[in-house]
Specification:
Helix content is 47%, strand content 16%. The protein has 316 residues and is an alpha+beta fold. The protein folds into two domains: 5-15 and 157-315, Orthogonal Bundle (Poly(a)-polymerase, middle domain), CATH 1.10.1410; 19-152, Beta Polymerase, domain 2 (2-Layer Sandwich). α2 (19-43) crosses α5 (91-101). It is elongated.
């Protein structure tokens, strides 16, 4: 049987967000935090907001996208709000404060989205700034489209993720990266990063030193859960269903996508030839997954995929 653990680990390193891109996000994040602090202090004469890094960048599961933008979510927590801010302070006003404070970001475009202020940069990345208020230890998100403050708990989600990670291993984090890279390569837009994160955390199966088997066993659990329940509930407030917006046929399509990947993983594990096994996975992961070349003398070496036989969609 094939053992592709080393190929998976190399795939993970290729799929992870590169250091240069991380540095771009961190530099821009800090510059925008400074802009917001200055605007609240000098213009609004209000207490400076606090900030909380959230989402995949905080979880260290952000990937290098084949095409499209990479991003970071940086929560802005307003301070010294009146007790009745939920009814007196309009969410769009709170967003407008943030948008105004960062409008001079270098070579960037500022857009107010339903649930955040987005700063779009010229070199293919953006920063999302969701705006929060806290009352009686409950966090609320400024939602522009509905013009309401919606209960939301990004800090709780962060704690939940790290509790799951600490009870498992780094393999859990890598499985999220593998599935994000798979969804990215196959343009599976219905399978979001947050959905994959929750699915893996709830269904992860550890297999020491065998990421190939761990991913396969985790996929079996994910498929079983989705087939039975056909929902995926967020583990923190507002406990929304991440599949709520999809109809029956679309949920079937999502499940079938996981089934196809599970079948390829199973076929790869069962294959006695590592080169053939890795070829099965390249079809679904793309050529960031390393092709194992088997030499005539029986030795095996890891090689960069052959350009002539494996397409590179991000070079189009």
């Amino acid at each position: 049987m094939a053992n592709l653990n080393s190929s998976y680990l190399k795939f993970c390193e290729k799929a992870r967000l590169s250091k240069s891109k991380k540095d771009n996000l961190i530099t821009s994040r800090e510059a925008n935090r400074d802009r917001i602090k200055k605007y609240f202090q000098d213009t609004l004469k209000e207490k400076i907001p606090q900030f909380f890094q959230q989402g995949s960048f905080s979880f260290k599961t952000t990937i290098n996208p084949i095409a499209g933008e990479y991003d970071v979510d940086d929560g802005v927590y307003l301070q010294n709000l009146n007790e009745d801010f939920l009814t007196k302070l309009k969410p769009e006003t709170a967003q407008d404060w943030i948008a105004e404070s960062v409008k001079d970001a270098t070579k960037a475009k500022v857009v107010c989205k339903p649930s955040c202020v987005r700063i779009i940069y010229a070199n293919d990345y953006h920063i999302d700034l969701p705006v929060y208020g806290v009352k009686d230890d409950t966090t609320y998100l400024a939602h522009r489209k509905s013009n309401t403050w919606i209960q939301n708990d990004p800090k709780g989600f962060n704690d939940w993720f790290y509790e799951k990670l600490n009870n498992a291993s780094e393999q859990l984090r890598r499985n999220i990266i593998y599935l994000k890279a798979w969804a990215d390569f196959n343009s599976l837009n219905k399978i979001s990063g947050i959905l994959l994160t929750v699915l893996v955390c709830k269904n992860h199966i550890s297999v020491d030193d065998r990421d190939d088997k761990s991913l396969f066993e985790t996929l079996k659990q994910i498929i079983n859960s989705l087939t039975i329940y056909r929902t995926e509930i967020m583990p923190v407030a507002p406990y929304d269903n991440l599949l709520e917006k999809y109809n029956v046929a679309e949920i079937d399509q999502i499940i079938n996508s996981f089934v196809n990947l599970k079948s390829a993983c199973e076929k790869a594990i069962s294959e006695t030839d590592d080169e053939k096994a890795s070829a099965f996975l390249i079809e679904l992961f793309g050529d960031r997954f390393v092709l194992v070349e088997t030499k005539e003398n029986g030795d095996k070496s890891f090689a960069i995929p052959v350009n002539a036989s494996i397409p590179k969609p991000w070079h189009r």
